[in-house]
Here is the input.
Amino acid sequence: MVTIRIPAPLRSLTADKSEISAEGATIAEVIDAADRNYPGLKGRLLDEKGSLRRYINIFHNDQDIRFTGALTTPLKEGDRLAIVPAIAGGR
Here is the structure.
């Protein structure tokens, strides 16, 4: 089981839960499992081609998955994922 931290903008998909759990051997499998329990989550994280949307960051135990294998990053029991939407702005 992997714990996933959900940011406020996505909590409408998780019944307002800030953390959920899902099973899977890779990040892609965990996203699929989480989407079965919380429909629409996968569509907010991945684009039509199944790649991580460019404005979404996922951290696996504090490491950005873009540098650790992306969606194929292997997971083990007790790992933590954090979904962090990119923040833009300023002048």
